Automatic annotation (TrEMBL), chain A:
This is Carbon-monoxide dehydrogenase medium subunit/2-furoyl-CoA dehydrogenase FAD binding subunit. Keywords: FAD, Flavoprotein, Oxidoreductase. One of its GO terms (molecular function) is FAD binding. Residues 1-175 form the FAD-binding PCMH-type domain. It comes from Tamaricihabitans halophyticus.
Automatic annotation (TrEMBL), chain B:
Residues 35-148 form the Aldehyde oxidase/xanthine dehydrogenase a/b hammerhead domain. It comes from Tamaricihabitans halophyticus. One of its GO terms (molecular function) is oxidoreductase activity. This is CO/xanthine dehydrogenase Mo-binding subunit. Transmembrane segments: none annotated.
Length: 296, 783
């Protein structure tokens, strides 16, 4: 029978690391299964062993050392439900709400999404925008990997063959920082055509944009961080419409997306421009409100 | 005329005294589907069953230089590998050719020396496990030598274009002509031109093509998901056996939409089961289904519409080119329907329509809900809107001045002989939209539009259609209906029960309907062309009335009253006196009385539709029995920076004459709109040089329920239709007006009219760009 595999359960991260070591490249980790199971179904991947890490369970999101700590097994829907996430990394709740559909959000995990590294995945885009860190375990010990390094290319991460992603750490939101996650889809619950995650930091008087970070997904082999140079039209400014539009236009001129059956390269560039401009506007507006202490 | 709203809760139609018809009982098919007990085509299993697979061409246009099946044959578990030389009569012949000038082109069951489209069957495998069959497919080594292909129907018309078939690239060239269009156009105050394009569309039924075949006592039986059991005769030809040696059983379908009107798995199952003498199952997975099944024809439609300054239509010149793909299938008839309906429900005294089906090396196109008459709605409704705009009239005014009425003559020269309630459907649909929504963002604009349409129900008149049914009242009072009808999931079988119950008074729970079996049922014709309520419904109605007449003679004698005063209801026949002292006989007793007296309680009845002729030279004659009319109205919001279109509100209204089952009418309209909105906004079976690039639901986008607005349905019951109890068909009509209504709403929002389907966000942005660049005329047309 084609596609047959051995199925093993891991009850702890230690056991998962050990099983992962034993199976090596013939093994696949099953977390939420929202990408892996369809690929198994279509026989696009045919692992010899499937290591189900769900029995490990996810600990609740927590805050430690000014970082929000997420277990790799945190489900997308947990990002929507957790008050800690909403308080400290609210962009995650905004973006997670746009992931797939309710079934995908109930099963899919943040770690699975990071490791699958789909260039239009919401989680990688947001983790990169937040400048997060990924914690990997292997028989050789623990490694901390910056998100930028972690996301290497299309469906490719920096994880070594024996490494397992266990945790994601994200800097918590600072005072006066706003956020926005925007995407467009051709059809409800599909992959984003283009997505943009943005954070904006305002001066204490809420007047000036002091820092921006913008990541665009769906336009390259991995989510792209817009460079300081691209953002310079708006950093130091007041968030005026023309400043934000200039950044959008510069971003669109920079990306070199590919054409596919859902959208041409030109259209993806247009979306990059519009979504970047809109995300910046929304993030700055929220940052200003935060900075004034008006809440959101 | 009674306008009904909220049909689900409604009581029977007010103008009638029906007790069963007009209600929505949860019939056997609903119950079986909800309980999961209904056995579809793929759910049938037999001992010793093999699994069949089709080896398909990877090339759209090539010579086959060699086929090496040795490695596949040697794979353990493979029982048979068949190629063209194993097929006794290697032709999928279209018996239904109208003989009106179409090219005669044969389609092989399995390709012999060349292939003409990607996905064309080349060889067949039967193996003990599905996985082994799949592995064996990859081991069949077919060597190809590329030939120049042709993938655009307009290029295929060029003199030097490569020929898909030696006979030529134009399968059929229909003409419909009336009056003098050229002279009238020259005399017109205003002439509107337009070019409209539609795309390849996949049927995307829930249940893919599937079935099981087995040989038993020298008879080959196929139990398959099919709309047409009459293909049994063609299977007999392919196997070179007499027709009495082939039996086809149609399982209840999870949708067909025309995609199971041509044969799908039948010839392959037949060959494998006949050759191995073992049961064989074949199920196409989604990818194979999207790759290999027929598609809706892409149309290129060019219109010139001439009118007087007051808006009165004077002339239409219409040219339609349909991409037939590599083989004829039902293209000739689809393009006929396109030609006949090209001007829509508007009076036009002078018209010339040319409609050609053109071969290409694309996947074959064939029947799909709407059947040519739906593509042209986008053409004629866009023209009407443009004409209104040019003359400073509202879309409603231009239609009021030109809309057909009962008694009017249509372009084929026939006159309309039933009510045309288009205005009523339009008033209802427009009223349903309610107050205009406000835009949700700075770059967003809201727009509204509507479109009307007419869709034939019943086969083309020259086919002299007929349907048979066999009704038997049993001695316990229960009723059997035997009919060759196939059930797409729309309740074709259950509707027959309601009609029979209405006439004979047998309670629904005491009626069983046996359908879709060439061995045990009288032929009813296939379920397509919105014909089964019309044809088999009429057969049941008149057959049940005949049966009732013979039963009534016995009951009348017994009760001492005239037969025509009897009341047939609740499993009894009663006298109709109003004193409350009415007397009655239970149907069981009546059946026993009849038996004792030698009166038959069974009736085999054939109902025949009106016949007629069409003259292809003159482009005049009989076309379709009647039409179902309707209007859809839409409100959309367009994000002018992303091009994303959101359908905010949608209302659909059709005149169905008389509802047999209101829930099923609602279901047809709701489902038709969903399919129509997919067609309008996202569905596109894209091909690049004949190679499909969207063969998974991940990239062939059909709308999900989350993409859909609430669809508000208003049903009009004019009491005039050619179906049973004056019903009209409603299977195909609801898919027609959607794209035109959406296009009109988008035009209202952004000021420029879409002329190409699907209207993707990217195309919306292109339209907005064109407008910004000043390349759009005042009436929204592209320059």
């Amino acid at each position: 029978m084609t596609g047959a595999f051995e199925y093993q359960l891991a009850d702890s991260w230690e056991e998962a690391v050990e099983l992962h070591r034993i199976w090596g490249e013939d093994g696949k980790i099953l977390a939420g299964g929202q990408s892996l199971v369809p690929m198994l179904n279509l026989r696009l991947v045919q692992p010899a062993g499937l290591i189900d890490i769900n029995p490990i369970g996810a600990v609740e999101p927590r805050v430690a050392d000014d970082r929000l700590v997420l277990s790799a097994l945190t489900r997308h829907q947990d990002l929507l439900r957790s008050p800690l996430v909403r308080e400290h990394c609210p962009i995650l709740a905004e973006g997670a709400a746009q992931i797939g559909n309710v079934r995908v959000r109930a099963r899919g995990t943040v770690g699975g999404s990071m490791c699958h590294a789909d260039p239009s995945g919401e989680i990688p885009c947001m983790v990169l925008a937040l400048d997060g860190q990924l914690i990997a375990h292997s028989p050789r010990g623990q490694r901390v990997i910056d998100a930028e390094r972690f996301l290497r290319s299309y469906l490719t991460t920096d994880l070594a063959e024996d490494e397992l992603l266990t945790e994601i750490r994200l800097p918590i939101r600072k005072h006066g920082q706003g956020w926005a996650f925007l995407e467009t889809v051709r059809r409800y619950s599909d992959f984003a055509t283009v997505e943009v995650a943005a954070t904006a930091t305002l001066s204490s008087d809420a007047h000036t944009v002091t820092a921006l970070r913008v990541v665009v997904g769906g336009v390259a082999d991995r989510p792209l961080i817009l460079s300081d140079e691209l953002l310079s039209a708006a950093v130091g400014g007041t968030g005026r419409d023309d400043e934000l539009r200039a950044v959008g236009a510069a971003a669109a001129a920079t990306v070199s997306p590919e054409s596919d059956v859902h959208a041409s390269a030109d259209y993806r560039r247009r979306l990059t421009e519009v979504l970047t401009y809109r995300a910046l506007g929304k993030a700055i507006e929220r940052g200003r409100a935060e900075s004034k202490g008006a809440g959101v | 005329m009674v306008a009904m709203t909220e049909a689900i809760e409604s009581a029977p139609a007010g103008t009638t005294e029906f007790t069963v018809v007009g209600n929505s009982p949860a019939h056997h098919d609903f119950q079986d589907k909800v309980q999961g007990t209904l056995r579809y085509g793929a759910d049938w299993k037999l001992p010793g069953m093999l699994y069949g697979k089709v080896v398909r061409s990877l090339q759209p246009c090539a010579r086959i230089t060699a086929i090496d099946t040795s490695a596949a044959r040697e794979l353990p578990g493979v029982v048979a590998v068949l190629t063209a030389s194993d097929v006794p009569f290697n032709k999928v012949v279209d018996n239904a050719s109208g003989g009106l000038g179409e090219l005669t082109v044969a389609q092989p069951v399995l390709a012999e020396d060349r292939v003409r489209y990607t996905g064309e069957p080349v060889a067949l495998i039967a193996a003990t496990e599905p996985e082994i069959a799949a592995a064996a497919v990859d081991l069949v080594d077919v060597s190809y030598a590329d030939l120049p292909g042709i993938f655009d129907p307009e290029e295929a018309l060029e003199p030097e274009a490569p020929l898909v078939h030696e006979a030529g690239n134009v399968l059929v060239n229909w003409r419909i002509g009336r009056g003098d269009a050229a002279a009238a156009m020259a005399a017109a105050d205003v002439v509107i031109t337009g070019e409209y394009r539609s795309q390849h569309v996949e049927h995307a039924y829930l249940e893919p093509e599937s079935g099981v075949g087995w040989s038993d006592n020298g008879v080959l039986t196929l139990r398959v998901s099919t709309q047409v059991i009459e293909h049994a005769s063609q299977i007999a030809r392919i196997l070179d056996v007499s027709e009495n040696k082939v039996r086809i059983i149609a399982s209840y379908m999870g949708g067909g939409f025309g995609g199971k009107e041509d044969m799908t798995v039948e010839p392959y199952l037949a060959l494998l089961a006949w050759h191995t003498q073992r049961p064989v199952r074949m199920v196409w997975d989604r990818q194979e289904s999207i790759l290999a099944s027929t598609k809706r024809h892409p149309f290129v439609m060019r219109y010139r519409t001439g009118a007087k300054a007051d808006g009165t239509l004077l002339a239409q010149e219409i040219d339609i080119i349909g991409d037939a793909g590599a083989y004829p299938c039902l293209s000739a008839r689809v393009l006929f329907a396109g030609a006949a309906l090209a001007a829509g429900p508007y009076r036009v005294p002078n018209i010339t329509t040319r409609s050609r089906a053109v071969f290409t090396n694309n996947v074959p196109a064939s029947a799909f809900r709407g059947f040519g008459a739906m593509q042209v709605v986008f053409g004629y409704e866009s023209q009407m809107d443009k004409l209104a705009e040019r003359l400073g009239l509202t879309p409603t005014e231009i239609r009021d001045r030109n809309q057909v009425s009962k008694g009017d003559t249509i372009p084929t020269g026939e006159s309309l002989h039933t009510a045309v309630e288009l205005t009523a459907t339009r008033d209802l649909a427009l009223a349903r939209l309610g107050p205009r929504s406000t835009a949700t963002g700075p770059g967003c604009r809201v727009g509204r539009g509507f479109a009307s349409g007419m869709q034939p129900y019943g086969r083309t008149i020259w086919f002299r259609d007929h349907a048979s049914v066999w009704l038997t009242l049993q001695t316990d009072g229960s009723l059997l209906i035997r009919s060759g009808v196939t059930d797409l999931g729309a309740g074709q079988a259950a509707s027959l029960c309601q009609i029979a119950s209405e006439v004979l008074g047998a309670p629904l729970e005491e009626i069983s309907v046996y359908i879709g079996d060439t061995a045990l049922n009288p032929p009813a014709g296939g379920t397509f062309a919105t014909r089964q309520l019309y044809m088999s419904g009429n057969a049941v109605l008149s057959g049940a009335r005949e049966l009732r007449d013979s039963l009534a003679a016995v009951a009348a004698e017994e009760l001492g009253v005239p037969p025509d005063t009897l009341v047939w209801r609740d499993g009894m026949v009663r006298t109709a006196d109003s004193s409350g002292q009415n007397r009655g006989i239970r149907l069981a007793e009546l059946a026993q009385m009849c038996q004792r007296r030698g009166v038959s309680t069974s009736n085999l009845h054939t109902w025949r539709a009106r016949g007629g002729e069409f003259d292809p030279e003159a482009g005049q004659g009989d076309s379709f029995p009647d039409y179902t009319y309707g209007t859809h109205a839409a409100e959309v919001e367009v994000d002018t920076e992303t091009g994303v279109v959101r359908v905010l509100k949608y209302a659909a209204s059709h005149d169905v004459g008389q509802q047999i089952n209101p829930v099923r009418v609602q279901g047809q309209i709701q489902g038709g709109v969903m399919q129509g909105l997919g067609y309008a906004l996202m569905e596109d079976h894209a091909l690049i040089d004949g190679q499909p690039v969207s063969t998974l639901f991940a990239n062939y986008l059909i709308p999900t329920t989350m993409d859909m607005p609430d669809i508000e349905v208003d049903v009009v019951e004019s009491g005039e239709g050619c179906g049973p109890l004056n019903a009209r068909g409603i299977g195909e009509p609801p898919v027609g007006p959607c794209a035109a209504a959406i296009a009109s709403a988008i035009k209202d929002a952004i000021g420029v009219r879409p002329n190409r389907l699907p209207i993707t966000p990217e195309r919306v942005l292109e339209l907005i760009d064109e407008q910004a660049a000043g390349r759009v005329a005042k009436d929204g047309d592209h320059e």
